[in-house]
Every structure is written in C-alpha cells, then in structure tokens.
Amino acid sequence: MKLVLLLVIITFATSIGCQSYAKTKEREIDKPNILYIILDDLGYGDVGFNGQDKILTPRIDQLAKEGIVFTNHYAGAPVCGPSRAVLMTGKHLGHCTVRGNPRWSLSGNPVDIDSTDVTIAEELKRAGYATAIIGKWGLAENLSHGRPNQQGFDYFYGFNRHLPAHHYYPEQVYRNEELISIEGNVTVEKKGQYITDLFTQEAKEYIRQVAKQEQPFYLHLAYTTPHYELTIPAERKALYQDKDWPLREMKAGHYLNDKNGHVTYASMVSDVDRQIGEVLDVLDELKIAENTLVVFTSDNGHEYDLLTDEFFNSNGDGRGRKRDLYEGGIKVPFAARWPKQIAPNTTSSHVSAFWDFLPTVCEITGLEPSDNGIDGLSFLPALTGNAKEQEQHNYLYWEFNESKGPLQALRKGDWKLLRFVAQNKVELYKITTDMSEKQNVAEQFPDKCKELLVILNEARTTHPQFPLTKRSNPYKKKK
Asked: Where does the Sulfatase N-terminal domain lie (predicted)?
C-alpha cells in the first residue's frame, strides 16, 4: 500500500513539474520582442497623431492608430543626456547618476552612467533577451564603464558621445567597442552616407539576424533626427520644397545647417517617418509583428520652433521647449503597438514618465527590478487597457541646471510646481486645466505651494557633481 501511495505521489509530482516546465516554456515563447524607437528633440506636437498639420508622419500615425497613445507621457529631462540616463535606469533626476549634459557638471567634466547602475538592457538579459542599441547612446563621454557593451547591450552601432552625434555625415561611428570609418563621408561638406539611412539599415539587418535565434530581442533604436544640425539630401525635400512657407534662414557654424529651416525640418521628420516604416515592414515580413511591442517617443521637447513666432506648433498646447521645465520641454509624444495585448485606436491619460519603462519591461517579462531604489512604476496595466489596476505616481520630479537654472519641477496630481532656485521664486499651475501654464496661481494657493515644496525638497539626493547652484556656460568661449 505504501509503495502504491509513493508511486502516486511521484506521478503527481512529476505531472506538476511537467506542467510547470510547460508553463515556463510557454512564457519564454510569449515574451515579446521590444522595439523602442526614440527621436532626438522631436516636439510633442510634431506628429500627426498629436495634431501636427504641416509635417506628414503617416507611418508613425499608423503605428499610433494600431495601438495606444499616451497623452501625459514625460521625458526624463529637458535635454538629451540625463533624459536617456533616466530612461535606462528607472530613476528620476533626483536620484539618477547623470543629471546634466556633458560639461554642465560642477567640475566641468562629463559624468557618465555608472557601472553600478542597472539598465533596461541588463534587466532584459536576465530574461533571456538579445539586446542592441543602434543610434545615439550619449552616456559614455569618457569612453569607459558607460559604454553600451558594458551596460548590457550585446550589440552597438552609433555614437557614444554627444558632439559627433550633432552631424549627419559623420566620418566615424562605433561598432561595439571599435571606432570605424564611414567610407566617403566628409562631415563639413555634408557628403557621403546619411547617418539616418545607416541606422535604418543596421536596424533592419539586426532584426533579420536576431529573428533567426530562439530568443526574444530588445532593440533600442535611437535616431538623431531632428536634432541640429538641420540637413538632409536635397532630393528628399520634394514634399515641402514648393510650399508657400516663409523662409526661416538657418546659419551654419558648429551645426552645418541647410539654409531653409522650415523645409529642412519638415523633410527630416517625414524622412525618418518613412524609415521607421521600413523597420516596421521588416517585422511584418518576418511575421513577428504580432509578438513585438513597439514604442515610439522623443527624448525631450523640440528646439527648432521659435516660441515668439511658432510655425509648426511643435509643443502642441504646451508652453516652452527644450531646456524648459514647462510642458513644452518635458512632455513628449508616446505611442505603443502590441497586437492582441494593446487595443487599437485607444488613448490613455495616465501620467507616466521615462523612469517607468524599466519596471514596465520587467513586469512584461516576469522580472522584479534588480534595484529596489528605482522611482518608476510599471505602466503595463495602462498599456493593456486595465486602467483600474494601474498604480499612480505620488509625484513626478525634474531638475535642470544649465543657463536657465537651477530649476526644479514637481507634478503631483492636478498640480505642477516650478521652483526657480536662484531667484527664490515658485510658480504653481493647475496643470489638468491649464496645460499651457498661463495662469500662475501660486499667490492664490500658498498652502499648496508649501505642501509641494516639502515634497520637492525631499525628492532628491545630493550629488557632488550636480548641486543646485548657478553655473556659467562651459561651452561659451572666453574673451
């Protein structure tokens, strides 16, 4: 009898074990590929799905239509470097290693992402993903521990540093750890191979190669469009060349801009839209689109559109632009597609930010974040239409310390507070009804200001290289 009972127990245990293994394998198979597409200095209002009516972005708009649009998604910072660091680490600017662009540190020396930081790529490696970044990294100015291959990426093609990424005909880029030459390119003459084309070619080839492997992939596709310099091959301006648009004449200096700003800017955005479409077509070609989460966004607000003479309305209903902590500087376009998981043609007003993406991919892949000190909250429920299950932020925090700084901003619920540290001044906005931040109501609600200032002061840890003190422009030539 005991022997029979033992056999039954063994059989049952084996059955449970097999079922568990089968479920584990099923989860492995169901882990989606992740394609994260991020543009550089594209404004919230520069895409059709957010109201743009001059620049054509049909493929991006189609992506948005096939998935969900977040109307309250925020970048990590109002400039590139810290925004990308926030995205990669899941920590906002009060806790992130990189809190300013290169040379805006106290010492004037660049601060890179640290070896102790845990990136999205490192997390996804734990989940069995192949990982790649193509385009602008910008978190390894010192070319040391911040390099992508040291931060969880199996493959890298692009720019480690910021300044080389300012040009569209670079003479060299990195392929993994090796700086390689681009044959025929002459940067100052704007001759050779257009870097946006090369990024697209690399992305398509990477997807084709990695799709042959029996593992999911994470591809971080970081185009430099439409960051200055503004330039594009002349034949690609055909869409806008004959428009009856006023001439905004661009000058050349460090940025080797084409002369006609409006035409060039619009052409660059439409051209990268086309190229994004080519990458998405490869997913269809390989029949992997259904199990691929595609995210589209921008690293911060626009720089091109003049606030005193807006032409494209690049910030939508927001105020300000790049380098502002007003909505125009930090609120960015966001669309995501994941067939069968995300309902098409949907929108969400969930308030989210770059530091939420790391915990989101962790939840998608069944991981707990390695660092329990992250600031992000998974927005997977909002993505998949489960708004009732979506956890909400207590607050969102930013700081900025270039020429306009030091500045701090806090969004909590309906309210947004801006603190101008050097001037000892605050502004308060009811952001849900005044997204243009026109009505400063600080004097009417002093108690709300005090409440938010307490949170603001507690939201950050000190950083020896990024104190909230006034600093001069390190890039300005001394006489």
From this structure: 32-366
Q: Show the tokens assigned to 400.
A: 């900025």
User: Which residues partner with 396 through β-bridges?
Assistant: 411
* Number of domains composing the chain: 1
Query: How many other C-beta atoms can be found within 10 angstroms of the C-beta atom of residue 16?
Result: 10
CATH number of 182's domain: 3.40.720.10
Residue 28 burial (10 A CB sphere; 0-12, 13-18, 19+): middle
Return d(Cα 418, Cα 324) in angstroms, integer. 10
Q: Is 200 inside a domain boundary?
A: yes
Domain span holding position 102: 32-393
**Residue 436 counted as domain residue:** no
Assigned domain for 55 exists: yes
Strand-pair category, 33-39 with 292-298: parallel
- pTM for this structure? 0.93
Per-residue pLDDT of the chain in tens (479 residues, 90 and over written 9): 434 443 333 343 434 343 433 333 343 448 999 999 999 999 999 999 999 999 999 999 999 999 999 999 999 999 999 999 999 999 999 999 999 999 999 999 999 999 999 999 999 999 999 999 999 999 999 999 999 999 999 999 999 999 999 999 999 999 999 999 999 999 999 999 999 999 999 999 999 999 999 899 999 999 999 999 999 999 999 999 999 999 999 999 999 999 999 999 999 999 999 999 999 999 999 999 999 999 999 999 999 999 999 999 999 999 999 999 999 999 999 999 999 999 999 999 999 999 999 999 999 999 999 999 999 999 999 999 999 999 999 999 999 999 889 999 999 999 999 999 999 999 999 999 999 999 999 999 999 999 999 999 999 999 999 999 998 888 876 54
Is 455 within the bounds of a domain? no
What is the token pair recorded at 436? 């243009």
Whole-angstrom Cα distance, residue 122 to residue 369? 10
By C-alpha distance, which of 409, 412, 414 is closest to 397?
409
